[in-house]
Amino acid sequence: MSDKSVRDGGATRPTDDAASGAPATKGARAAKGGRGAQLEHTGLRPGWTTGACATAATTAAYTALLTGDFPDPVTITLPRGQTPAFALATEELTGAYAMAGVVKDAGDDPDVTHGALVRATVRRLPPGSGVVFRAGPGVGTVTRPGLPLPVGEPAVNPVPRQMMRDHVAAVAALHGGSADVEVTIAVDHGEEIARSTWNPRLGILGGLSVLGTTGIVVPYSCSAWIDSIRRGVDVARAAGRTHVAGCTGSTSEKTVVAEHQLPEDALLDMGDFAGAVLKYIRRHPVDRLTICGGFAKLSKLAAGHLDLHSARSQVDKGFLAALARRGGADEALAAAVADANTGLAALQLCQGAGIALGDLVAVAARDEALAVLRGAPVAVDVICIDRAGTVVGRSTVA
């Protein structure tokens, strides 16, 4: 390849289920129940997160910087071990840097970033620098506290950062380089796309966030996913499970398994549909339901929302302030909670003051769940976690 080369082309998505992270065949999964069987039951095609796309682009760019050639397709390893391959949509190599781009495929999810071109530009840094992240055009910068990144940092979330660090290290080890590089992530038209997200309200300015904890976008059609929740409850009951868990995502699922050692077919991928779980279990009871999810999402349930999607319900900081007062917060702290940028920021304020806001939210969410169950013979407890999976609040069983 010449000292400076540029190529633009299309992107394709692998079709091999094992490589792509798509569900296995119906015969293999339907009988098991749980998260995987729910996804398979919807018939919806999963896709890739912006974090996975950024990791693939970074891997290809750094490989080219060290070897002179872009791997195309480029294969990465996701946090759960899947190894998808991504076609490159654009590439550029000079003596100073390498850039590669991947078109995001969100599968059947109505993701506003579907079809966006995610670019990674990699430059060498002096020894000991480590991996330094920069926000290129279309990627936002954090300007307010309460997010999982410090103010001033590019809006590239912790898990995608770790994925990129791991892949940079692997490429360096394979080709004799060092893991000291600058990685600039950009998204074509990202600033325009971000206007359709909550980023501006959260103080993420200039573009999109690079997100994803598993690398895979789980698609949500409301009717299909609610139907899959019902199927999950039916499978659990048929297997004789007396304790099931409704989880908002993969991190909360891991927390529940660690806490209660529940088998796969007792795990319900609730997502944002808390009401669907509660209403179906009201008609088809089990002895015990554990609800586990992120603090902010479960604060919405605590406030009476049964659909936890960000487009249909928001964290009510006034409600959190009222809970904080109930837990002993003075008016100055309550006012700070009401004015907090995010639910996480409100939680951190209370933690610093010794107010157990996480427990208060868990209890309120449990009581709301019991109200929806309308006296059905189901005991309920709630676990609130942070983004890292640390338990930040819990209720007793009632």
What does this structure look like?
This protein has 15 helices and 19 strands. By secondary structure, it is α/β, with parallel strands linked by helices. Helix 11 (295-302) crosses helix 15. It is globular and about 70 Å long. Mean pLDDT is 87; it is low at 1-31.
Oligomer type: single chain
The major pleated sheet works out as: 6 strands, mixed
Strand content: 15-25%
Uncertain residue segments: 1-31
Distance between the termini: 67 Å
Strand order of the largest sheet: 1-5-6-7-11-8
Q: Tally the helices: what do you get?
A: 15
Overall strand count: 19
SS-based structural class? alpha/beta
Task: Summarize the topology.
Blueprint: E1 5-8, H1 17-20, H2 26-29, H3 34-42, E2 47-48, H4 50-67, E3 74-75, E4 85-86, E5 90-93, E6 97-103, E7 117-124, E8 131-135, E9 138-139, E10 141-142, H5 158-175, E11 181-187, H6 190-194, H7 199-202, E12 204-205, E13 207-208, E14 216-217, H8 222-238, E15 243-247, H9 250-260, E16 267-269, H10 274-283, E17 288-294, H11 295-302, H12 317-326, H13 331-338, H14 343-352, H15 357-373, E18 379-385, E19 391-394
Parallel strand pairs: 8-11, 9-13, 15-16, 15-17, 17-18
Antiparallel strand pairs: 1-5, 2-14, 3-4, 5-6, 6-7, 7-11, 10-12, 18-19
Helix pairs in contact: 3-8, 4-5, 8-10, 11-15, 12-13, 13-14
